[in-house]
Write a structure and sequence with these properties.
The structure is a single chain. Helix content is 40%, strand content 17%. It has 351 residues and is α/β, with parallel strands linked by helices. It folds into 2 domains: 4-134, Four Helix Bundle (Hemerythrin (Met), subunit A); 136-347, Rossmann fold (3-Layer(aba) Sandwich), CATH 3.40.50.10470. A hairpin with a 4-residue loop joins strand 8 and strand 9 (244-247). Helix 2 (48-65) runs parallel beside helix 4 (93-108) and helix 4 (93-108) runs antiparallel to helix 5. The protein is globular, with a radius of gyration of 20 Å. The relative contact order is 0.11. The structure holds 5-S-methyl-1-O-phosphono-5-thio-D-ribulose. The site of 5-S-methyl-1-O-phosphono-5-thio-D-ribulose (MRU) has 18 residues, from helix 2 and strand 9.
């Protein structure tokens, strides 16, 4: 089942509401870009590749619903829509990448407004299909790193839900399982929104992969006890030097892995690489509502003092030196990232 689908007859986009999983599997319909921007902001849809495809459909819907009768007026409406979508969340570069691609595609159509509308709906569909194909290719490359009997720590949710289907890091794990490798997953619960405990655990259950949920700080102990062989997580934006912005806690996990000589891999499509940013410190880090951290209940009671304050950074940056490799659809990139990525892309000297 895809996380994001398009209904051609009704001209609406449908998405799984990821805020209420696993208690309820509910599909929401969207017929305008403003609501899609809000859905990205409040995390109905989340995960870098899924956000990118949702934004692409947002642009397609902006074109479909626009009353513009001239090419210029439609392009102006798409500019407005792109600005609104771009403000939804700051870290995952796939959002900006998708909006830009849709705007460039619209500009490239010489024909009528209706021809632009058709082209954008078609391109959003192609981007959705490509996401699934890319994920499966990454999964093949990544699964080769997993050995029979491995126990893997996984952070956040990087599965079918974080993409259109199949997933990035979790897709690698799923592929290894489908290749009949016996694996076990330690699922970081991923405070504060619990993408691991809610979404990754739910997905692993669908795939029949054995797992235990662990608290976010537990992986160091598991590693010291010799219970962990690999670490896999995704990426929301990768700087040109291979520094990886990903869900808060990824850096601590990679540090613990490095200290214990355990290989840690980040899995992402090339569209998550931002070659314009030289290093990870330049990646904008989203800070969300403190209430996400504070609204924690135990035994039916809110645990934090009434006047407590909190900081809620949604992502952190893992320096490239802590990673053993970067799994992409072009293969597993080994250090040094930039040189080997460019070689894989066959665009040496492009920077
Ligand atoms: O805040 P989220 O849930 O959108 O964060 C998602 C992640 O950090 C994922 O690990 C990342 O997008 C890569 S998943 C394909």
């Amino acid at each position: 089942m895809r996380t994001i689908t398009w209904d051609d007859e009704k001209q609406v986009m449908q998405m799984i509401d990821q805020r209420i999983l696993p208690q309820e599997l509910k599909i929401l319909s969207y017929d305008n870009y403003q609501d899609i921007a809000e859905a990205i902001r409040v995390m109905v849809v989340r995960g870098a590749p899924a956000i990118g495809v949702a934004a692409a459909y947002g642009m397609a819907l902006a074109a479909v619903r626009s009353k513009a009768t001239t090419r210029e007026a439609l392009l102006a409406d798409l500019q407005t829509a792109g600005e609104a979508l771009n403000q939804a969340r700051p870290t995952a570069v796939n959002l900006f990448w998708a909006v830009k691609r849709m705007q460039q595609a619209a500009q490239a159509v010489e024909g009528s407004p209706d021809e632009i509308r058709e082209a954008l709906v078609r391109l959003a569909g192609e981007m959705a299909d490509k996401d699934v194909a890319t994920n499966k290719r990454m999964a093949e490359y990544g699964a080769a790193l997993i050995e029979d009997g491995d126990t893997i720590v996984h952070h956040c949710n990087t599965g079918a839900l974080a993409t259109v289907d199949w997933g990035t890091a979790l897709g690698v794990i799923r592929m290894a399982h489908e290749q009949s490798k016996k694996i076990h997953v330690f699922v970081d619960e991923t405070r504060p929104r619990l993408q691991g405990a809610r979404l990754t655990a739910w997905e692993l259950e669908q795939y029949g992969i054995p797992y235990d949920i662990i608290t976010d700080g537990a992986s160091g102990l598991m590693m010291r006890k010799g219970l962990v062989q690999k670490v896999f997580f995704g990426a929301d934006r990768v700087a040109a030097n291979g520094d990886v912005a990903n869900k808060i806690g990824s850096y601590m996990l990679a540090l613990a892995a490095y200290d214990n000589g355990i290989p840690a891999y980040s899995v992402f499509p090339i569209s998550t690489v931002d070659l314009e940013l030289e290093r990870g410190d330049l990646i904008p880090i989203e800070e969300r509502d403190p209430e996400e951290v504070l609204a924690l209940s135990l035994m039916g009671h809110r645990v934090t003092p009434e006047k407590a304050s909190a900081r809620n950074f949604a992502f952190d940056v893992t320096p490239n030196r802590l990673l053993s490799g970067w799994v992409t659809e072009k293969g597993v990139i080994k250090p040094p990232f930039k040189e080997n990525l460019l070689a894989a892309l066959e665009v040496e000297g492009a920077l």
